[in-house]
Amino acid sequence: MFGRSSHTWVEGEGMLHALYFKKESDGKWSISYKNKHVETETLKMEKQRNTPSFLPAIEGDSPAILSAYLLNFLRFGTVNKLLSNTSVFEHSGKFYAAAENHLPQEIDIQTLNTLGNWDVNGSWNRPFTAHPKVKVNQYTNSIDKMWLSFIGA
Q1: What SS3 class is residue 85?
Q2: What is the pLDDT of residue 101?
Q3: Which residue among 2, 39, 40, 130 is least enclosed by CB atoms within 10 Å?
Q4: Tens digits of residue pLDDT in 11-68
Q5: Beta bridge partners of residue 21, listed in sequence order
Q6: DSSP string, 91-148
Q7: Which of helix, strand or coil describes residue 63?
């Protein structure tokens, strides 16, 4: 009746991968590996339901996409899944996973646990850029982080 909508690769959940290097007391190095999904609120909800729940709403026939938007919003209060699947950045000693459709998620770098949304202490309710930049200041030869590009500002 409305056509079809289908999932696309950009709708995938973010997964963190970490390699940890540790120098032992005998001078040898040990390496360990860990991975874990970034647990956004929508991923937690789908895990609780034990099934993918969101209708794909990015690719397909226009009436099907609009219907998926509406049904997702009525069922979950958001039209798309909240993802953090594009990049990881560090700011002030904390680490964040980001995508351009949702607030960054603070990550515990040792356990890879998701600590929650980072909303700049309650003063921001929109996504940040998911592609942070670093540049060298030509006058001081220091590194300036240019990640704080706001979307929709």
Answers
A1: coil
A2: 83
A3: 2
A4: 778 899 999 999 999 999 999 999 999 999 888 988 999 988 888 888 888 899 899 9
A5: 31
A6: ETTEEEEEETTEEEEEE-TTT--EEEE--TTTT--S-B-SS--EEE-TTT--EEE---
A7: helix
Q: State the chain's mean pLDDT as an integer.
A: 83
3-state secondary structure (DSSP) of residue 56: coil
Q: What is the rounded CA–CA span in Å between residue 80 and residue 12?
A: 11
* Structural tokens at position 33: 């590996």
- Cα dist from 3 to 10, 53, 60, 66, 70, whole Å: 21, 19, 8, 11, 15
Q: Which comes out higher in pLDDT, residue 112 or 153?
A: 112
Task: Annotate 22-50 with DSSP letters as a single string.
Answer: EE-TTS-EEEEEEEEE---HHHHHHHHHT
Which of 81, 53, 94 lies closest to 105, judged by CA? 94
Could you tell me the end-to-end alpha-carbon distance of the chain, in angstroms, rounded to an integer?
38
Helix (H, G, I), strand (E, B) or coil at 5: strand
Query: Which pLDDT belongs to residue 73?
Result: 93
pTM of the model: 0.75
Percent of the chain scoring above 90 in pLDDT? 33
